[in-house]
Amino acid sequence: MDRSASQIIKDKLLALMVLRVVLALVFLGVGSWFQLKDYYFATPLYYPIHFMVITIGILTIVYGLLHKRCRRVVQFAYIQITIDLLLITVAIFITGGTESYFSILYFISVIGTSMILGRRGGFYAAFVSSVLFAVMMNMDLYRLLPQQFKVFSYNAAGVADWSFVMTTIATHAIGLFTVAYLTGRYVEKANQMERRLEEREVDLGRLETLNKTVVENIPAGIMTIDKEGRITSFNRAATSITGYELREVYLQSVYELFPSLLTARPWPVSDVTRPEKIVKTKDGRDICLGFTVSFGAEGEATNIIIFQDLTELKSMEEQLRRDDRLKALGELSASIAHEVRNPLASISGSIQMLSKDMDFDGDKKQLMGIVLKETERLNRLITDFLLFARPASASEKAFIDIADVISETVKVFSNSPQAKGIEIEVRLDHGLFVEADAHQLSQVFWNLFINAAIAMDGKGGLSISAGAEGRGASGACEPSVKDKGESVRIEVADTGVGIAGGDLGRIFDPFFSTRDGGTGMGLALVHRMIEEHGGVIDVSSSPGRGTRFTVTMPRVNLDASQRETGT
């Protein structure tokens, strides 16, 4: 027998012990009542009742001591049932024998045995009860038992009829076996139903566990809210996206925590379209959430909100759109530049020859100077176009230490007029090798330094740093960096006027400039060159506080011989 079934029988036997004590007390109370009232059918001798109660008390104590130690629970139950039936037979005898009304105790015992041991135990109790009852009735009929121990005697003649005794025995036997059969059948049905309920509970528990596991591991954020708009559940993905733990948002109003998410009723419940809203995370970042709201059950899940962080996706979409624009513009720029550069060279040469052959004075000479100056500016613009359209070839790339390129560019910049009044702070880690065109990288950093100087207007601080960044740095490496792994991270930060939020998404577009006289090609060239080198450039800015450009490029690990040769 398994442990659970054995424990169930033990629990039922414990209940039987309690019932036995209660019946003994009732038996004692009934005897005491008759003794006090001094009924005609009751004798003044009540010692048999007291003996019965004491015996039951002693047996209960013994059963209690053996209850936890007993391993053969079924056999222990049969022993208790047998002793109980003997005690019931004695009780029937002392309460009148053939005239006793306490034979009902047999039926109670049979019912209890069936509930504890099933149909087989019930038939056993019915059989033993029938035998003991028949023996006791016949022995009492023929006065083979000591009559002085009878407490009650209802028949004044004192002799029962033989046919009455036989009829009583037969009806009791039929009744006992009938009760055993019906009770056993009921118990079996009840046990089957209980097992089915337990199996269903187990299945429901498994389904609940599975459902919880699925909800917790689904990559989309899921939160439920009640009819008052309070958050009642928050899965793991929701925590990862927003930064809030369940304990921080539980029963908090979704309108207060994420005020821009559900701005008005009715909420956007749809299976086709997915609204997108900008919300703030726990650390204050703005992220773009795509979400749907569906109706749930009443109570804690009145509405179910499923959402995803689309910030990176939106950034990638914008990057792709920008790349498409830049590619088309680059091809157009290369075509136009080649077509314009030759005539422009002819114009510039002709103007220079005219200025040498002819003697211009006053306004005419000034006009000739303006023509030459603008011609040179156009030529520089065309050169930028060609640089923008033509990526660095493999033959122009080499393994270079990024710190050396930055140091040289900083030295040139610090001696330029644009750096006047600017405090420059440089923190560079050496030995950070990248495969790149040194001239183009120098131009990248020069453009960033010049832009920073213009934004600070001759006063402020410029911070330049370069260091290694592994996979785990800052959460994860940029997904756009080629050859993901260890990379080089360069930051150029200024304390200038900053960039307006509406302009951040356009600063790398060609011809877009926030200052008068700018060509709008500087940052476009920077973006194109970094991209051609397998890196990414990002910008963050706070108007009035400054701007930070972050360049990330794949790092190359070189041995000593490669460092010496640069290949």
TrEMBL record:
A Pfam family recorded for this sequence: PAS
GO BP terms, alphabetized: regulation of DNA-templated transcription
Keyword Iron: no
Domain Histidine kinase as annotated: residue spans: 335-557
Sorted UniProt keywords: ATP-binding, Kinase, Membrane, Nucleotide-binding, Phosphoprotein, Transferase, Transmembrane, Transmembrane helix, Two-component regulatory system
Record field: transmembrane: 12-34, 46-66, 73-94, 100-117, 124-142, 162-183
Gene3D superfamilies in the cross-refs: 1.10.287.130, Histidine kinase-like ATPase, C-terminal domain, PAS domain
SUPFAM superfamilies, per the entry: ATPase domain of HSP90 chaperone/DNA topoisomerase II/histidine kinase, Homodimeric domain of signal transducing histidine kinase, PYP-like sensor domain (PAS domain)
UniProt-listed InterPro entries: HATPase_C_sf, HATPase_dom, His_kinase_dom, HisK_dim/P_dom, HisK_dim/P_sf, PAS, PAS-like_dom_sf, PAS_fold
Coiled-coil stretches: none
Domain PAS as annotated: residue spans: 207-258
Presence of keyword Transferase: yes
CDD domains the UniProt entry points to: HisKA, PAS
Gene Ontology molecular functions: ATP binding; phosphorelay sensor kinase activity
NCBIfam families: sensory_box
Protein name: Histidine kinase
Protein's organism: hydrothermal vent metagenome
Species lineage: unclassified sequences, metagenomes, ecological metagenomes
